Each structure stands twice: as C-alpha cells, then as structure tokens.
Amino acid sequence: MLVRTLCLLFFVLSFPNAKALSASGDSALTAQIGQKMMLDFRYFCDDGTASNRCRKPVLSLTPEMEQLLVSKHIGGVLLFSENLEDIPQIIRLNYQLQALMKKHNLPPLFIAIDQEGGRVARLHDHIATRFVGNMAIGATYPVHGTAFATDVAKGIAREIKMLGFNVNFAPTVDVNSNPDNPVINVRSYGEDPRVVAALGQATVIGMQEEGVLSAIKHFPGHGDTHVDSHTGLPVVSHDRATINRTDVYPFARIIAGPTPPSMVMTAHIQYPQLDDTRFQAKDGKPTIVPATMSKKILTGVLRQELAYDGLIVTDALDMAGIAHYFSQSEAVIRTFGAGADIALMPVSVRTPGDISTFKKVFDDVANAVKTGRLDTADIARSARRIAKTKASFGIGGFTSVPLDARIQEARAKLPLKQNKKTEQALAKAALTLIKGKARLPLSQAGNWHFVMPDEARCKAMLRAVEKQQNIPVSCQSLASLPPSPPGALLRSLNALVVADITPQYSVAEMGGMDDLASWRDRADKPAQYRWMRKTMQAAKDAGVPVVMVALRAPYVLAEFSDETDIALTTYGYNVTVFDDGRAEGAVFDAIYQALSGRFKPSGTLPVTVRHSGNSK
C-alpha cells in the first residue's frame, strides 16, 4: 500500500497538470503522450542540410532539442555511438538531459542504450567492456550454467549506469532457430528455448539488481527469420504450439520469474498464427499486421496470456519493417492502440523540419485520443505505468551528485578492471572445438600463417601470439582479396589458420586500419569463399594442417568441413584499436592459447552445425 501511495505521489508531482485533468485536458494529455515518446538525436543539422544527408553527431543538446523535450514533456531518449565520444562528453550530455527536465519540474528521462555486448555495443571499447556476446555465453552454459550471464549483465550495468544510462535494450532472448538469420544469429544465446530463457532471466536479474532497467527483445520472437526488420517485414509461419514452445517460451519464463523485466520490446514481424488481421499499407496492398501494431499480440498474448504488467516499448518505428507500410502518425497511433506504452524513434529527428514533423505526429496522436480512436483511460493508465517504473528505479538521481564528481569517478574506474577479467574468462570458456581435437596443439616451432578478415584482426592475432611466445607467424588481410593463393608461402608453413566473419560485417566494425577505397571494392562472400577454399585445399595438398575459425556464426564451418583439419568457433570478433596502431581482442588471445595447447577448449555449440565432421 505504501509503495502504491508513493508511486501515485510521484505521478502527481511529475505531471504538474495531472491534477487539472478535468479543467485542462490538453495540458494533461500532452504530459501523458509525451511520456510515451522516446526520441533519438543521433545527428542534427540546422544549416539547411537535408535530413537524410545530415551526419553531424549530437554531442550536446541544441536549443531546438531542449525546447522539444520540455514543450512536449518527452519521456525518454536513446543514444547511439555517434553521440558517445568520450567519458566526460557522455556524462555531460546525460547530465544535461536530466538537469533540463529537473529545471522545468518534469519527470526524469529514460536514457537508453543498446549495449547488448558482442556485435551490438554503442560505447567505444576504451570506455566500456564489450564482452564477446550472447552466443558465447550460451556456449558456456553446460559447464558454467548462468554464471557468465550474471557477471556480464552486472558488469555492463555498472559501467553504463556510471555514465548516466538507466535503460539497456538488452538482452536479446530470441531463439536463433534459423541459420540464415541475418540480424539475430550470435546476438541470441542459442537455439534451445530453455537455455535462452535461463540465461536471459539471469541477465535481467543481474542488470536490474544494479539499478538499470532491462528490456528483453524482440517479442514474440525474431529468431526464425531470414529477413532483417531494419530493411523489410519478416514473417514467422510457425503454428501456435511451436510459437508457445519456442518463440514465446523465453519471454513467458522470464516474465513469470522472480524479477520480471522492466520492459519488453516488440518485433516488427508478422505472426499470422497469432494475428492474421490484414490492413491496407501505404502502397494500397493488403498486408498482415506486424506484432508491433497488433492488439491481439501485445494486449491479448503479452498482457493477458503472459500477465505482463511492465512497459511495452516498440522497436524503432523508423525501421523499414514499419516505415514502408505506415505513415509516421499512423504507426504511433496503431501501436498505442495495440497496447504499447512507449513509441521508440517515431520520427528521426535530424533537422528543424523533422522537429516540425514530430510535432505534427504528436498532434495527430492527441487528436486520436480526443476523437475516441485511442482510449483516454488506456493512455492515462500507460502514463501511470511509466511514472511508477521511473519511481521504482529512482532514475532522477543522476544529478544528485555534482557533475565534476561523476566525471572524476568514471574516468578513474572505466572500463572496470573486473569486467576485463570477465571478458577474457568468457572468451576462453566459450571457445568451442568442433573438429580436430587430436591435431592440437599446433607445432610450437611456429611458421603459422593467419588469414584474417581485415587488418585490425590481423594485428590482434599477431599481438596475441607476441604476448605469449616469440615464434615466426604472419598474417594476411582479406579486406582486399589477393588474386591467387600464396603457393610458395603455403609450402613453407607448419599451419594455415583461416578466420571468417559470416554474415558479412560493416566498415564501421573494421577498426579503421584498412584502406577504405579498397574496402568499398571488397569481394562479396561467394568470391571470398572461393579464394578461401582454393587456398585451404592448396595447403592440405602440401601437407599443411588447416585450421578454420568462425569468428561470428558457427554455421559457416559446415561449408568448409572437407578443407579443414581443425575447426573452432569464438562467436565474436571484437578488437580494440589503440591510438598507436595496436589492436587487441580477447577472442584472439583465446584462439592462440588453444592452438598452442595452453588450455583445452570447453565450449559447447549452442546451435546445430551440420556436416561439420567429427570432433576427434
């Protein structure tokens, strides 16, 4: 009873116009709708640059942004890597955001980040620990249980909280049952729903115990898709029994657990067995409603069947999976009607014109409430739910400590030393030997040649060897595909080690060491595979042991089973590139230590890799 009273008091104090609901409905409605909006300010240009061409990062608030946040009572913001330069700048920005709202007697902001670990991490490695990622954690489960999930979750939460973030859009609890999934793959803990649920639950508990709200995603499941919802609208055609047993199972288990997630993020995915309702898209074609817009899914399944009473937040509404089919106003109105509490990135705010567009969307939502299309009671209930969550986590406390003190503490401690130790331990515990146990260790005389996807990973691999042993090794980057296999070199080797990142990764993930002109002309995956296969076969013909390392999804190892003697997978490929040109990465240290016999890999595949040969 006391908790409810305090939450109600917080709601009244946080929404100055709430007591005047009957006398001043418009101001109260603005406060309620504003709390249901979460914006990003990745870039902003006020010089006439077109919105889609603006690339000026927002490192501090502009007057236009301040006016928008205050006038519309905005409830949250999401920051991206472009907004996050260094520790002092990040803390100043987040402090500025919260101080602005406090100054105007408005509720504190949700300040969110996508710091999943592994592939998805917005903070630079010299600021916060990236860790290897979820599938690596899944590979440790048979030996270590949920220990790494807990340690990583707590470690991430401690670092981002020190910087002023209070929401992490993590963990991904999609069950990766489709090897061709282009967007989830190693972001998932694996293909076993029970393991995904156990590790996801441990992550939620660990994160929220450290005072950071956790948002599990992407409901009702993004694991069995071959289309990226950033670029299209995927469909999952499972029957209801499979959906319950696989896709929804981790969400249901975590929600029913002792520490439910503060947020559940929706998926821009069609699930015809959950809702086959059709709507007329912008192009006039009848289309099955995506989960983000489905009342049957968000209210019927998530709220009623799973009894979830936390916050439902959409995935970004400017993604193609939504933007291609709905106008900006219609997307927000429909998702609120379906039961979502928070509309994430309803408009990409890049220019003053975009601010005007957002205000038009905001007014359209308000009109939908006034005309009865959106239920007044539902909107008010959602706003109270948001206020209650903000109160329970005390998210307004960041400005209670002086700014300089916040910066001083973070600069002294970040990245946390314990996190670096955990990162190294996870990389070793996750390393999985799929084939060739009897062929290890490799010759201690050296003469190993590495083939890496780019120069940054070459340097990290050579550095890993250098730290442990002085043996002759060499490395070749595939950023620019050589015309033919290095025949003379192959004949002189004691081992060839070929590493691959599949699916393909972006220029931003390279580490900045390769020539961008040649990278723009890089060969596609089929061409790379042809070169790799020819080189690996030439090495085998010369009697040279061939090692292949999957640095991302392990499925690729099946395609090269005939050409490899030893097959390993790391589930991650992260490197830290230093100003002096050095590069290091925990997984590369683990690769060298395993190949040289310094430890025996104990990781277990959390997904099925077919036709990969035996493990002997």
Tags for this model:
globular; 616 residues; single chain; 20 strands; disordered N terminus; 21 helices
Mean pLDDT: 90
Major beta sheet, strand line-up: 11-8-7-6-3-2-1-12
Question: Radius of gyration, Cα only, in angstroms?
Answer: 25 Å
Uncertain residue ranges: 1-23, 507-519, 612-616
Summarize the amount of helix as a percent range: 40-55%
| Molecular shape | globular
What is the helix tally?
21
The helix-and-strand class reads: alpha/beta
How would a crystallographer describe the biggest sheet? 8 strands, parallel
Distance between the termini: 62 Å
How many strand units? Answer: 20
Share in β-strands: 5-15%
Question: How would you describe what is shown here?
Answer:
This protein has 616 residues and is α/β, with parallel strands linked by helices. It is 40% helix and 12% strand. The protein has 21 helices and 20 strands. The strands form 5 sheets. Strands 11-8-7-6-3-2-1-12 form an 8-stranded parallel sheet. It has a 6-stranded mixed sheet with strand order 13-18-17-16-14-15. Strands 4-5 form a two-stranded antiparallel sheet. α7 runs parallel beside α9. The longest helix is centred in the middle third of the chain and has 19 residues, at 352-370. Mean pLDDT is 90; it is low at 1-23, 507-519 and 612-616.
